[in-house]
Every structure is written in C-alpha cells, then in structure tokens.
Structures
1.
Amino acid sequence: MNLRMGSNIFRDVQIPLLWGQRAVVQDEEGRLSVIDLSSREAKLEVLSDEPAEGAAYSPRDDGFVVLDDRGRELYSYNPRDNVLSSISLGLPECQVTKSVMRIGGNTFSGNRVVGSAVGIAVTETSVSIGAPLPPGLAKLAL
Amino acid sequence: MRVVMNSDVLFWERPPRGIPHRLRDFCQQSAAVGARIVLPRTVVLECQRLRSEAAEDHKTQLRNATILLASFGVTVPPFDPEALAVPEDLPDLLTAAGARVELVDPLLEDYVEAERRASLHLSPQASKKADEMRDLVIWALSLRIARESGRAMLVSRDEVHSGNLGKDEASTNGLLRASSLEDALELLGRETPAGSLARTLLAAVWQPLREAGLPITPGVVIRRLERLSFLADAAGHTGGTFALVTDAAASGSLSAWTSIRQVGPHRIAVDLEDITLDGAQWQSGSISLEVDGELPVRWTPTRDRLVALRSVIQREQ
C-alpha cells in the first residue's frame, strides 16, 4: 500500500497505522476508516468518518462510540477533528488530519516509511515507526 | 440522587492534563438535576496512583523537551518540572468541572461483606478464579448507599457490577446500574443523543405495537432506556436495540428488551422480548411485528463510502 496520511508518506506498507489491533486508513478526502483485525476476518467499524454497516455504535454530541457485541464501549470517534479516543482499549488518543498525525503526546509530520509491514504501530505502552506485522492479525482486505 | 462512580468510567482515556470532555459534560449535567457524584475511597486512591504515574511521565517529557530544544539552539526560560507536573486530584477536577462531589470511605461492614462474597464466591462475582476484593467493596458500598438513600446509582463497566448476577440484588436494594456515562444520564432523566435516537425509532413502531395489543399508552412515553446500541444498514438506515421501560396503558410499568430495524425498502421489523408488566411476564413475553415505514437515514450508503476506501487499500495490492 502506498498512501499519504497526516502528511506522512507510507510506501510499500501493509498497514499504515496500526492502533492496537485496528488498522486506521485515511482516504484522499481526509476521512478515516477503522478496521478491526483481531478476528479471522477484517471487520470494518468506521467507514469514511461514519459507522460501518453492521458495526454497533452509539451516537454522541461530537461523533459516535463504537461498541462490541455485548454493548461495551470500545472507543469514540470525533469526525470533525478526526480523533480516535480509547474508552476500554487502553490505547493513546490518535488524531489524523491531512497535515499531521498525533498519537498521545507524539506528533508525526512529514515522515517517510518505506517497506515496513506496519508504518506506525501503537500499543498500550509504545509507539513505533516501522514495525513487523504482529502475529494473528487478519489480512487487511475488504 | 447519589451516583457512585467506579474507576473504569473515570479513566478511560489518558489525557495529558484535566479530564475528558465526556466526563466534564457528565459532571455538569448530573449537577443540573441535583445528583451528587460519590467517589469511594478505593477509586480515589486508584486515581491517585495513575495520576502520579502520569505526572512522572510529564516531568520526563518536559526535561526531554528542554534538552531537544537546546540541541537546536532554542533556549527556554528556566522552569521546574517538579513544580509544573503535579499530580491532579480527582475530586478537585470533578468539582472544578461543575460536579457535586462526595467522598465516601468504605465502612468495616463493606469490607466484611466484600470478604464474605469473595471468599465464598458469591454473587455478583462473575469469575470463580478472581478473588478481586476492590470491586466487591464498591458493590457493598453502593448497596449500602442505596439502602440509606432510598435509591442510588452505580456507574461501572465492570462485569461484577453490571452483569446479570447482581441484577436482582440491585433492584431489591434500589440500586440503579449504568454501564456508561450516557446510560447514567438517561437514568437521571437527561436526554442524550442515543436516547433521542431510540425515541425516534420507537415513534415509528409505537402505534402498531398498541394496535397489536401491547398495553402501552397512546402517546410515546419513555421512563427509562438502557444498554442502547445502534446499527447502520447498507442504505444508511439506523436500527437499534435497548432495554425499555414505559408506562403501561392502565397503570404500572412495562419493560422489554427492544430491537427495531429496517428489513426492506419500506418495512420495519420490531421485536420485544422479556416483556414484563409490573415485574410479571406479559402473556408469552414477546411480540414481533413488521410494519410499513422507514427508519431515519443518518449515514451515507455503504457502497459509496467503500469505493473510496477500497481505492486506497487496493491501489498497490
């Protein structure tokens, strides 16, 4: 995959931004999609700034919250500011605008990541640029 | 109403400073209806630990920032990271956000009760493997506060607090349970975006449900909504599931687990299960209908959005 996200250039990567076990992809209009890769098949949760078909959600004043099958709140998404905020995933907040990518207190802008399976990998305790694909994730295919 | 808060609804994000927008909003809205936020001492101590860890991280970041700036020839006025990154106090933060806050120390009877439940693996402990005392102390404290006050609420996502095992005991003691801040606001009588959407869905099927014999009032009356969850379909319609409590036609209350969804271009399906009338099962306990109509279209059709995403993902695959 070759794309530009938050002014960062990703070339020949499989997943540009891996937020926990979720791929985050920005389209050319700056809208975000979030794909859960934790199961056997990839599952869309957020599609172009809106809840994906079949993904449980709850509306909020500033966007919506994605829920799991049991109604547990996983994370919120604010499409106006393109901000993903963990509720029960334990991950740092993530913002991807057209000009910048902010993860927790770290800001990424104008970087170039080439040939890594994962462009930027975010876990509960770390943020890495250029990382291998964690085992057990579904293929990012829709 | 006194509203007991568990730690998992207070620390879901790790903001650099302050509290998240949603919690700030909850503080203001709960105060507007006269509710008091009860913080068990165990929750305050847990928060204190997390805020102290965060403060240490902030000190390190401030020192590193100074070093980085200096390496680029940028000088900053002298400052003391120890003085700047002071751990924030949870009760102070909530009070500053507009909440009425009450700190409650668990009593010996709460600890004894929690110890008994943990050791004997009694309800509402969900797992036989876990002997977690802290959750049970909060449970015992919440039940006690509900008994003392006539009614109270526990806001917690924890399975021990929100699971089915504690349902009857909570009801008997007058303890309402909410697993999110939004559910809590609905229980406090504040209409949330989720509650508003659920009301819109119900309005589309209310009259047909009455005509099918469900004993509800002529107008849409909602007493309580809980565990709200919504789904978009391919065309962008929104359906939803939630626990509903409404007025019964004659008197009393009717409650049901409700599911409403679009099943065709102009057809809506509605299922009510576990229907109870004043606590007793109503007839067979369920009713299912299909009615003419269209649920609100809130989202762009999937196909249109998927095209843009696929073009990004498949460009090089």
Note: Chain A has one domain: 17-128.
2.
Amino acid sequence: MRLVVVILLVVAAGLLAAVPLLGDAVLVQYGINALLVATLAQSWNIIGGFAGYPSFGNSVFFGLGIYGTAIAMTQFGLPFGVGLCLGAALAVLCALLFGLPVLRLRGHYFAIATLGLSFAVAAVISNLEIAGANIGLILPLIRADGMFYELALGLLVACVLCVYAISRSRFGMGLIAIREDEDAAASMGVNTTLYKTAALMIAAFFTSIAGGIHAYWITFIDPASSFDPTLNVRMVIMAMFGGPGTVLGPVFGALVLSAIYEMLASWISTAAALLFGLVIVIAVIFMPRGLADLAVGLRRHGPGYLLQNIRRHRI
Amino acid sequence: MRRALAMFGALPALLLSTALAAADDDVITLGAAVQSSGPQANTGRYYADAYQLAVDTINAKGGVTVAGKTYKLALKLYDNQSDVSLDVRQYVKLITADKVNFLLGPFASNHVLDTSSVAEKYEIPMVQGGGASGQIYSRGYKYIFGTLPPAGDYYGSTIEMMGKLDPKPASVALVAADDSFDVSVAKGTREHLKQAGLDLVVDEKYAENSSDFSSILSVVKSKAPDVILLSGHETEALNFIRQMKSLDVSPKGFYAFTVGVPTEDFRNALGDDANYAFGMTTWLPEESQKDQWFGNAAEFAKVYKDKFGYEPDYHAASAVADVETYAVAIAKAGSLDPKKVRDALASVEFDSLYAHIKYGENGQIVLPQVVIQIQDGKVVPIYATDFLNKPHYPVPGWDDRK
Amino acid sequence: MLLAQIIVNGILLGGLYGLMALGMALVWGVLNIVNLAHGAFVMLGGYAVYFLFTGAGIDPFLALPIAMAIMFAFGYLLQLIVLNQIIRSAQLNTLLITFGLDVVLTYLAQLLFSADFRTISPSYAGANITVLGITIPLARLAAFGIAWLLAAILWFILNRLAFGRSIRATAQNLIAARLYGVNPRQLYAVTFGIGAALAGAAGGLYGIVSHLSPYVGAPLTAKAFVIAVIGGLDNPLSVILAGLVIGIAESLAALYFGPTYANVISFGLLVAILVLRPARSLRAA
C-alpha cells in the first residue's frame, strides 16, 4: 500500500514538473502561485498542525524572505541565491528572537501575538529607507517563469519531504505530544521550548524561501503586498481544509482551494470573492476537520458524515 | 490516490477555462484588468466605463484602418478586485491565453507598477492612464506609456499661482501619504517650493489609508501656515477636510488637494464643507478641447453622463485617451506588430478630448495641471498659465462661512 | 499648547477605539469566538445610521439605538443559525468562518451600497468648542461619552443583573451552567447580538467623525483586536481604558516619531503586553 502511494506521488511530482513544457503560460503563472501557497500551508502545518500552535503571523516570515531577497538584489547587487539566503536568515532569526517569548502563550493569544508581530514588522519596514520605505523596491526584470515554477515545485517537494521526516521522527512525536497536552509532554521530559521554537524556525525557513522566489518573480514589492494579513488566513484555511497534522493534507487543501479560487476568478470574475467566502463558511460547517478527515469519513459513513459533523460540533 | 486524481481533475478544468478562440481576423483586441470591485472600485469604474465607451464610439465611427484594411476594436476586461497579485495573473492571461493585441492599464500606481512588468516581459505595449508615480517610468521600460503626467509636477501650477496671489503666501505645510504616487508628489513639490522661495514649515508623512489626522492637524495649526497642501487618496482628503473643520484648522490663505476635488461623489459626501477647497485636474469638459470621435470634451461629458449616470472626471478622460492613442498609433504603424506599434506610440501626436497627446522620452505624457476650486458646489477652473477665473481667496475660517 | 491638544486628541480617539473593541471583547470572552467580521458589523451599523439619517431624516444620535437594535437582531440570527453549528469544533474554525463571513458581508455591502464613500453629516458634525486653548470636536466628545456610557451599561448588565450572571457563568463553565438551567443556544445568540449592537453603535459614530465605505471594516477589526487583548476580556470598562491608552500612544507617537509609526506602536504594544503579562491572567488554550 505504502509503495503504491509513493510511486503515485513521484509520478505526480514528475507530471507537475513537466507543466512548463506544455507551453501554457497562464497555467505556469497559476502554478507558481499555487505551489508557493502550498509551501506556505505546509510550513504552517509544522507549527500549527503538528505542534498545535496556530500562528496567524507566518506572513512575517514570507515578508522577511521577500525583503531579504529584494534588499540584497537591489541595494547590494547580490545574486538571487544570496538574496534567498539573506531572506531565510532574517526570517529564522526573527523566529528565534520573537518565537521564544511569543511561544509561551497559548491558543488564541498566541494567534493574536503572531498577528500583531506581523503587523508590527510590516509597519517597521514601511519606515525603513533601505527597504524603500512604503513605496517598495523594484527588482531586476527577468523573464523566466519556467525557472520560477521549477523552483517553487522543488521548494514544495523539499518541504513535504521535511514534514514527512518530522512525522516519523522523535521530534515530530514530541510536537504532537505538545499539541495534545503540553503540560503532560513537559512532565514526560519533552523540552517543549526547544521543540516549539525549532518548529517555528523550520516553518520560517520554508516560508521565507517561498517569499524570496515570489519577490524575484513579481519584480515589484511593497509592505502592503508582502505582509498581506489575509495571506495568514488563507494559508491557515488551506492547511485546515486539507487536514492539519497530516503529511499531504495541507498541500492538497492548498492546491484544491487555489484551483477553486482561480476558476471562480476567471469564470465569474466579480463575484469570485463572495463565492470564495461562502465556500469557506460552508466548508467550516460541514467539514471542520478538513479534507483528509472528509475522505475517511465519507468512506466510512457516507454523506451522513456531513450532518454528523454539525451534530457533533453544534450547541 | 483519490485525492491525487481529484487534484488532477482541477488541471484540465483550468485548461479548459482558459482556452479561448484565437483572435478574430478583423478585430483588434485591447485587454485590461481594472478595479470593478474592492476598495478601489470607486475610481476603477471610471476606467471600465470609459474604455467601453471609447471602443464603442470609435467602432461606430468606422473603427481603425490599418494598411488599407478596416478593423473593429474589441475590449477584453477583467475585474482585478483591487487585488494586485490577481491583477498580474490576469494580465498574463490576457497576453497568453486571450491573446489580446495590446494592453490598457489598471487604476493606481501600485497596480500599474506590477502589471507593467508583465507587459514589458512579454514585449506588448501598455498605454495606461491610472498611474503617475515616478517609479513607473524610472525603470527604463520601453513598452509602457502613460497619460497621467509626472506626479512630482502635480503642484507645479498651484505653486506658480501662489506667486501671483495677493496677499502672497509665504509659508506652506505639506502633508503626504507614504505610497508610491504621493511620495513622488511630495518629492517634486519640495523642489518646486524651494525654487519658488516658499517656506516649508510643516513636512509630514502619514501611513496610507489613515483615517485620523488629528495629530497632524494639531501640528499644522500650531505652525499657522498660509497654505496647506495635501497629497493622498480621496478618502484621506475627505477625512482631512472634515477633521479640519472639527478641529477648527484653517490656513490663512488656502488649502489644496491632489485628488478628490474634481470628483462628483467627493463633493456630494462633503456638502457645503467642500466649498473653497482647491484642487487640480488635467482635464475639464471644455468645448475647446476637440476630438475626432467625440466632437469635443463637453459633448463627451454629456454622452458619458447620459450613459452611465455619473459625471466623468479626468480618470475617465485619461482612459478614453488611452484607447484613442491606440487607434491613432496602430493606423500610423500600418501594422499590428507589437514592436512597430510601440515605435508608433513613442512618436504619436494628436488632439484628443483629454489633451494634446504626446509621450515623453520615458513614455509619460507631460501635461500641466489646471488649478480648480469648489465655489458654491461647482468646480471652477482658476489657473492654468494665468488666471481663468477669480479665486475665493483668502479662504474664510470655518466660523466665518455662511 | 500642542502637547495638551495632542493628548486630548488621543483621549477622544481612544474612546471611539474602545467602543469598537467592546463588542469584540464580549464575544471573545464569553463565546471564545474571535470575530474577524467585527469590522464588517461596524460598517453595517454605520450604514444603518446613514440610511436612517439620510432616508428618514432621523438625527444620527437618535438613530443609534435603532441601528443597535437592527444589528442586535442581525447578530442574534447569525449566531443562532450559523455560528452555533460550529461552536464546539476547533477554536481555529471560528476564526476561519468569521473570515469567510467578513468576505461575504463586505461583498454584499458593495453590491447593495456601491463603493461610493458616504459621510454622516448632520449640521453639527464639525462643531467644536475651545477650552483653555484646546479645540475639542463635539462629535468626538459625544462618541467618547457614549463609549463610557455603553461600557458602564454593559458592566452593569454583566455584574448586577441575573441575566448577566448567567452569561458570565456560561463563559466560565458551560456544563455547570447548563445544569443550572441555562439555555446556551439562546444565551450565545443574545450575547453575540449584544456584541453586534455595540459594533453597530461604534459604526454610526465612526460615520459621523470619519466616513463609511464597504471597506472600512478590516483595519477596524485589527484595532479592535489590539484593544480587546490589552484591555482584557473580563471588564468592559478596562476595554475603554485600553482604547484610551492606544489612542494616546498613537497620538504621541505621531507627534514625536511621525504619523507613519502609529501601527508600529499599537502592534508593538500588543505583542509586548501579551508577552510580558503574567501567565495566570491569560485563559488557557
């Protein structure tokens, strides 16, 4: 069973990698966007799904990855690879410095603190001259969508492999223990501070690389779009939709929701936002545990599963 | 397994939705994504409506003749929902899937900044009338042309006018938002002020989309300047005036805004409080502004209002000029090849209801702003290169108004 | 004197901020729902007052209670029909569903009211008085007063009325409260309705001192967050106080650092207070 899954995934990855060869530029554009968002959802999964700490501020790492890359390339003329490293370094450092105090909070308070952190960092950057203040920076123009696509895909694959490795390691078990009952985990000898902070730093790493790729691809960056707060909600929705704490759930959640949004935007254009909002509301009501749980639940109980969900969670 | 299949199901569906018929033989398609919904829809609608009206009117008058053959214009419009990343994807779609011939622009400098990169990458000309920021033209792009004049010169005419007012103002307070367009305005305005020998007593920058100006206004009041110049978006100008009134801030001379004043719903929202405010526009619906498709600007304004139910302003006129630019340039190029049309655009020159159209070296038009003032609820042109009408100056304090 | 004026500005601004946060803090504290659509409720309340004023000619301050009643009904129904269905699932789900609701409400508002901006401008909207050289806008002063009044009424309800006690009991221990005969469905709906009504009042006042459009909601939600957290979810009066703190902090920051630092200050303060606050006063996850 496991081998079949692995083979299918490798085939899927190969097919995805071949998409730029189809010559459909729109699909590649959509692909880059969808793959980057999938990476964001999967990175969130590490801290939010496995460790149970629902970060609502991962956009800060995305933004730092963007700005690290942009500043390196535009202010210092450094190559793209170096820019990515700078962005990742900034994000991981931020995760370490702010993670330590903020990870002492639980639940909603942690969520709000991370949200506040991302707003605060965005506001600081919009006042920094080296970052172009609020008018942003312009990166050199390069027409290489195929390259960006493969980079985004490669990043996603790396992130998935990392999450897989975590899920099978002691580290991952520790995170799950923290999620289920942190005090019990601590009394069992799990170094909760170390584990939580490490989880946040890993999430920050992948998120910031995604940011760096995004920066070079889109060429013009500013604080509003780089630290976009709705990005946080979107990556959380996608991870939750797909199934948090699983290895592939967030990836599928992200790809499916992106596809839905893109189709709505191109077919109906104006009402896309409205319909997307409705999709979210309906999804939360009928499948509050995500796609992964839906797949299992439907197989076991049939459509009654949907109503069961409501009965279980209503008051 | 099932999940993987479900995901792949999305791909063909997407391909299907993006596959479109190839461009028709006798049609030149112009593509754009504008803000028809979202926070910028208030201004975005001028572009959507104006583009459509221009295309319809040009077609009604015979379309465009290219190398002896007659073509009709077609418009492919998307709603970018005021979302910049969606805007970028839509422009890629317009170029690669919808295979439009040429591009028109979205509204707002930040949207133009991103989407113009797409046009430049694919080497398809874009004529836009929605972004004025210096950043747009500082990148050395070859395919981008714009009908809004340089942001830095927006207050040029106003400052020139100040030299001719009696009593002559001496001190100025400059308040600007921190987004691309307004930063460009502020930078240029500081230069103009220095050259005119005016004293800048307050120079404040605020975060865009702010709704509270009480701190800035208190600082301005304490410095008692002769003139207040604001550079920001319409809602900011609106809040600024309301808070000027409630904090009883009134400069000794006058106050002016970069946007808002020429627009109908801005005046409606403020009612009487809109009076005495100075503003600027690159366009007025005058009969003297002749146009080969609309007759003249006044007739255009009438047709526009009759069709859409609201008065056009310079955004709409600028959008019409963009479409007309293509009609003239394509005919001049005698071909639909993007490079040839691009070269024609660089050298095109003609009169339109918007203004005399000619693009500078960097692709941006150079147009003076006309200083306007709201007097008794109406927009009155005050100064272009000399006084057109008498201004209500000095502006009375809030308590001294009727 | 400039400093005194700035501080007064901050206090008045803070009063309105506090009122905005009041509804969010109530709903969060009692129902454990972080309402990301709170700003949309503020916006809708504002439009209600706008239409009552321009359509029926009712003075905006008199229209406030009517708008509050409308928003109460709206919130009550929303909780009863939609939110009650998911309230016992993962906490995160309430964040997500309210996000979806925010998107839907904002879109509907644009559809119904268009993207045009509106102002609620009764003849006295710009009136002000000058005391000791400090200009005090009267509309803001009224908003300040109303904020304290509503907070006091809410405090009274929560602490002195039986109904308020059942709300607090349910917040502390749902099972025990049920054993005592509380009907949580109704209670939750009423509480959410009160939260929406308070948001609506804030919206009406916001329309008088600022402006209204379908999109004013989002930044207001963010502000309300900050203030609700800083003020704490237990005491309505401390929420208003937290609003004052933020209002004054932002105004002083604007004076000394520049107006672009307002967000740095508010969110910086938020993070700092969350992190430095003693752990036992925070509710566990």
Note: Chain B touches chain C through 38 residues (CB under 8 Å).
